[in-house]
Amino acid sequence: MRKPIIIGNWKMFKTSDETVSFLNAVDGACQQLEVEAGVAVPFVNLGLAKQHAKNLIIAAQNCHFEDQGAFTGEISVDMLQDLGITHVVIGHSERREMFNETDETVNKKMLKLLAKGLTPILCCGESLGQYENNETAMVVKTQIQKAFKGVNLEDAKTVIIAYEPIWAIGTGKTATAQIAQDVCAIIRQEIANIYDEVVANTIRIQYGGSVKPENIKELLAQPDIDGALVGGASLDPTSFLGLVK
Ligand code: PEP
């Protein structure tokens, strides 16, 4: 049985005061949920967020794949681990589109996180043009194959995949539950092709793209959707609690 996991992606939102007031309002209400829940916080507020979160997972939104070195502005996995961070989002489409993240760097980050015992939340998903050209299956399969290159079978089971059609992120356009389910099933089948049925049945696949308290239930009712990665609707405490409850 796969436990659903809902992660809010705060992107470049919330000052330190706003981070603390969100967590003071939300964390206590997240005891004994039926799902795992957390928020992916900007780097500078990760340590602070950890201090104010007993129940929520505090995730990072990115990391570098080298241990240390002359990489101005970057943050290593060891630095995240020092703060007690256990989950890291990699390959978000905003990083792929605006910050030159490639399947190759995503793979390096995946291998580094797994080697250090952290959980990658691996994002994949097609653009509007690719969706309209019926290229979705090909695009996500390729992203999955490249991201999992060199990942062993045991480590693969621990990865969380977030399927996020780019045309649905921050646009208010949610993929229908059926579209999201169909693509998540394709992703799970691809994991079975690379590894085996056990890995495919263990790995958790989130859907992301304009998820809101009003549509999350239908999405999570789909057999291959095991949670959500949520941007906009995760920023407000009431909306976040509406998602996780
Ligand atoms: C995201 O940032 O991963 C996301 C899905 O954003 P939104 O929920 O705002 O579409």
TrEMBL record:
UniProt cross-references to Gene3D superfamilies, sorted A to Z: Aldolase class I
A GO BP entry: glycolytic process
Gene Ontology molecular functions: triose-phosphate isomerase activity
The protein's enzyme class: isomerase
Active-site residues, Swiss-Prot/TrEMBL: H92 (electrophile), E164 (proton acceptor)
Pathway noted in the entry: Carbohydrate degradation; glycolysis; D-glyceraldehyde 3-phosphate from glycerone phosphate: step 1/1; Carbohydrate biosynthesis; gluconeogenesis
PROSITE patterns: TIM_1, TIM_2
Subcellular location: Cytoplasm
Principal cellular location given in the protein's record: cytoplasm
Residues that bind substrate: N9, W10, K11, G170, S210, G231, G232
Domain of life, source organism: Bacteria
Catalytic activity: D-glyceraldehyde 3-phosphate = dihydroxyacetone phosphate
EC number assigned by the record: 5.3.1.1
Keyword field: Cytoplasm, Gluconeogenesis, Glycolysis, Isomerase
GO (cellular component) term, any one: cytosol
PANTHER family referenced in this protein's UniProt entry, alphabetically: TRIOSEPHOSPHATE ISOMERASE (PTHR21139)
Function of the protein: Involved in the gluconeogenesis. Catalyzes stereospecifically the conversion of dihydroxyacetone phosphate (DHAP) to D-glyceraldehyde-3-phosphate (G3P).
Quaternary data: Homodimer.
Protein family per UniProt: Belongs to the triosephosphate isomerase family.
Protein name: Triosephosphate isomerase
Provenance organism: Spiroplasma syrphidicola EA-1
Name of the gene: tpiA
